[in-house]
Amino acid sequence: PAVPPQVPYQPSSPRQVANTLALLRGRAGKTVDLGSGDGRLVLEAYKQGLRPALGYELNPWLLCLANYRAWRAGYHGKISFLKKDLWKVNLSDCHNVIVFLAPSVKPPLASKLLAELPDDARVVAGRYPFPSWSPSSTLGQGLDQVWAYDIKEVRREVQGRAQQSQV
Ligand SMILES: C[S@@+](CC[C@H](N)C(=O)[O-])C[C@H]1O[C@@H](n2cnc3c(N)ncnc32)[C@H](O)[C@@H]1O
């Protein structure tokens, strides 16, 4: 979009972090948190073996905090936090994408993810699901609920809907 909606900082709860990582268990490959805040999800992803693990964040204070937390945990130089606009990074080599963002960004973000991610990618969304995608699994309740989407399945679903609307 020309002017992407703004997303305020609100850190994930310990339960949200645990649920997110549970939905990424057994997976591998480049893992990113879009809007990584203080880096808590990226840190836990790295600990779980998801590598490389990195976060994109625009707020310089949060970037500083994330780097400090990584250093304190002994992961300095192993995980990266980059000052990049999530709308401008190319996601074509990302296999696991974590999205804890406001509902208003979900529709434009859904288009970006569908256009760029590889077929075997998994997207885990916290707090709010993607309104027009069917999750392959979900965990937790209320504010702690997280949803996992397998991009191959989502593409099939979206293409199916497009074909149906043509007949
Ligand atoms: C709801 S917070 C989630 C933080 C972290 N992922 C967590 O779960 O603890 C969303 C974060 O996205 C960041 N953000 C918002 N718009 C962004 C953009 N265009 N590019 C990069 N980061 C962005 C905000 O600064 C904020 O830290």
Automatic annotation (TrEMBL):
Domain of life of the organism encoding this protein: Eukaryota
Recorded GO MF terms: protein-lysine N-methyltransferase activity
Signal peptide: none
GO cellular component: mitochondrion
Gene3D superfamilies given in the database record: Vaccinia Virus protein VP39 (3.40.50.150)
Keywords associated with the record: Methyltransferase, S-adenosyl-L-methionine, Transferase
UniProt cross-references to InterPro entries, sorted A to Z: FAM173A/B, SAM-dependent_MTases_sf
GO biological process assignments: methylation; regulation of mitochondrial ATP synthesis coupled proton transport
Keyword S-adenosyl-L-methionine: yes
Family statement drawn from the similarity comment of this UniProt entry: Belongs to the ANT/ATPSC lysine N-methyltransferase family.
PANTHER family for this protein: ADENINE NUCLEOTIDE TRANSLOCASE LYSINE N-METHYLTRANSFERASE (PTHR13610:SF5), METHYLTRANSFERASE DOMAIN-CONTAINING PROTEIN (PTHR13610)
Name of protein: Adenine nucleotide translocase lysine N-methyltransferase
